[in-house]
Write a structure and sequence with these properties.
Layout lengths: L26 E6 L8 H12 L1 E5 L14 E9 L5 E9 L4 H13 L5 H7 L2 E6 L10 H13 L3 E2 L9 H10 L3
Antiparallel strand pairs: 1-5, 1-6, 2-3, 3-4, 4-5
Helix pairs in contact: 1-4, 4-5
Length: 182
């Protein structure tokens, strides 16, 4: 899905049309060991509330009839500090084999930090997720990083930040949020 393109969603809340990740410089990329594109609003919202004191809701509600999941998907996510005005971010997901630039950026990040166990995580990765920069709507420029931190925790996925040659986990994402005053 190209930047700024209008997205359509079917009756299950699944994105229609071709979903493609942007270059890693245009979003926070995550590499999940889970192969499915399941978006669990309850788990995401719980993680945001408990660990980041944030409210998180999905704009497109997701349903998985018969337990199936889409090959690729997208969702708009609203996040805010408790009681604050929400900011909206776009999250995309594709099988990792359809995200060679993200895989290459992750491998470069692993080399840059000397492995540190992230080489094993990269080896187990099956799915790429991307939180687009900048946010779609709202005033809080930290929203993409906040959603990234929530996803890193829920998906047990390492993070490749936009425009940097490094990789880190949920702890690194939390530290970055703290430095930004979250």
């Amino acid at each position: 899905m190209a930047a700024g393109a209008h997205m359509e969603f079917d009756g299950n809340g699944w994105a229609e049309g071709r979903i493609e990740l942007q270059p890693p410089s245009e979003g926070w990329s995550l590499l999940s060991p889970e192969p499915e594109a399941r978006i669990d609003e309850h788990r995401w919202a719980h993680q945001a509330r408990v660990f980041f004191r944030a409210e998180l809701t999905l704009v497109q509600k997701k349903a998985y009839p018969s337990g199936g999941t889409p090959m690729a998907d997208a969702v708009e996510v609203d996040v805010a500090r408790a009681g604050g005005a929400p900011s909206r971010v776009l999250v995309l997901t594709v099988p990792l084999d359809r995200a060679p630039l993200v895989r290459a950026a992750a491998a470069a990040g692993v080399r840059a930090i000397g492995g540190c166990g992230f080489d094993a995580l990269l080896g187990r990765a099956r799915r790429a997720w991307q939180v687009r920069e900048p946010q779609v709507a709202g005033e809080d420029a930290r929203a993409p990083l906040l959603v990234t931190a929530v996803l890193a925790a829920v998906l047990l996925a390492p993070v490749v930040p936009p425009g940097e040659e490094t990789i880190f986990g949920v702890k690194g994402a939390r530290e970055r949020l703290q430095r930004l005053g979250w």
